[in-house]
Design brief:
Blueprint (H helix, E strand, L loop, with lengths): L1 E7 L3 H6 L5 E2 L1 H14 L4 H18 L4 E7 L5 H18 L7 E6 L8 H5 L4 E6 L8 H13 L1 H26 L3 H21 L1 H18 L2 H30 L6 H34 L8 H20 L5 H45 L1
Parallel strand pairs: 1-3, 1-4, 4-5
Antiparallel strand pairs: 2-3
Helix pairs in contact: 2-3, 7-8, 10-11, 11-12, 12-13
């Protein structure tokens, strides 16, 4: 038996005529079609139901086993409507009194109603799909549905509409730039914004920025000191760079002739190393604090601030020596002190971790023996 299945996904039939669905049989389906045409002659579902009747009559004239039915969904969204259609298809199939295998011919009015086809196919084999459209408006509903789907997707909406919006703003911005006598600046800024947006979309920088903001938000609400340490460290790093450039300019002005690149680099390092070292110590102490609060602190983590100080001592001595601000004796002593500080901290915390880890393991073993006893 062939079941001609007319699909009304948003339940125009039930909402506009009060018919209970599913509607099964030629006479009830014809009454439903006339009622919907009377209630709303412009509704495209009227054409769907009459097309179903036309197919039914054509097959019945050929003495084929055929039945016609109308199934509807609801106006609460695609998922809920699809489920409603699936339930009504089950009802229709259960009402058919035939020993023959049942297949279906689905009649719809466009792409939106055809989204329910997988639901129908899971219940009954589908021989074909007949889309009914008004000849004067062919493909109009499909185009509308496609545009609607694109605009409902936040990612696709942002990808398409933001560049289009920036392009449409170029002309009014150019007019404003002409009035302000800055047309080149306005056009250049607009082009730069569009380019930066496209580059960020291409590289996925938006997702990374969202992830960074989410991590910062979680750190803020979790009371993590690392977030505060990073903010302070960023400020110290910026101050270090400014002070480094000031030192570089002072050395350049005091030099006879053009200063060499190694000297300028040493001047920058000498002026900024104190601030940058303070930034490094700040971040390492913040991380250590969070590890201690979380109960995951290990002894070797305490090496970080000492390593930062060691590197800072060495860099300061090397840069000062290049600038002829210290003697060779100070230079050698600073290198030795920085190296020894790193080695001593490493050995100290390694020994401490070894001893305390052994003590903890022994205590845990004794506790387990006591529990077994």
């Amino acid at each position: 038996m062939l079941l001609v299945l007319c699909v009304d996904l948003d339940d125009d039939l039930g909402r506009k005529t009060g018919f209970m669905t599913p509607v099964i049989g030629r006479e009830p389906v014809e009454e439903a079609a006339v009622a919907l045409a009377t209630a709303d002659p412009e509704d495209s579902d009227v054409n769907v139901i009459f097309q179903g009747l036309h197919v039914y009559d054509d097959l019945a004239d050929r003495d084929e086993s055929v039945e016609v039915a109308v199934v509807t969904g609801n106006d609460q969204g695609d998922v809920s409507a699809n489920r409603e259609v699936g339930d009504e298809v089950d009802t229709v199939l259960a009402s058919l009194s035939t020993a023959e295998d049942v297949t279906a011919l689905v009649v719809t009015d466009g792409a939106q109603d055809e989204s329910v086809i997988p639901i129908i196919r899971s219940r009954v084999p589908i021989d074909g799909v007949r889309r009914v459209v008004v000849r004067q408006a062919q493909n109009l509903e499909s185009m509308y549905y496609t545009i609607k789907q694109v605009l409902d997707d936040p990612e696709t909406r942002g990808t398409l509409l933001i560049p289009l919006g920036i392009l449409l703003l170029i002309y009014p911005l150019a007019l404003i730039g002409t009035l302000l006598e800055l047309p080149g600046f306005v056009l250049g800024t607009t082009s730069a914004l569009l380019g930066l947006y496209l580059i960020s979309r291409g590289l996925g920088l938006g997702d990374r920025l969202d992830a960074a903001v989410e991590r910062a938000r979680r750190s803020l609400y979790a009371g993590r000191t690392t977030l505060l340490a990073y903010v302070v460290a960023a400020a110290l790093f910026a101050l270090g760079c400014v002070n480094g450039f000031d030192t570089l300019e002072a050395v350049r002005e005091s030099a006879v002739g053009d200063a060499e690149l190694p000297v300028l680099l040493a001047a920058f390092v000498n002026g900024s190393v104190h601030w940058i070292a303070a930034a490094g110590v700040t971040t390492s102490l913040g991380q250590i604090t969070d590890e201690y609060i979380a109960g995951t602190l290990e002894w070797r983590y305490l090496n970080a601030p000492f390593y930062v100080l060691s590197i800072a001592i060495v860099l300061h001595a090397v840069s000062a020596f290049f600038l002829d601000r210290v003697e060779i004796t100070y230079f050698a002593a600073a290198l030795t002190a920085g190296t020894l500080l790193g080695i001593v901290s490493t050995l100290t915390f390694a020994v401490a971790e070894s001893r305390f880890s052994d003590t903890d393991d022994a205590g845990d073993s004794g506790a387990r023996k006591a529990d077994r006893a």
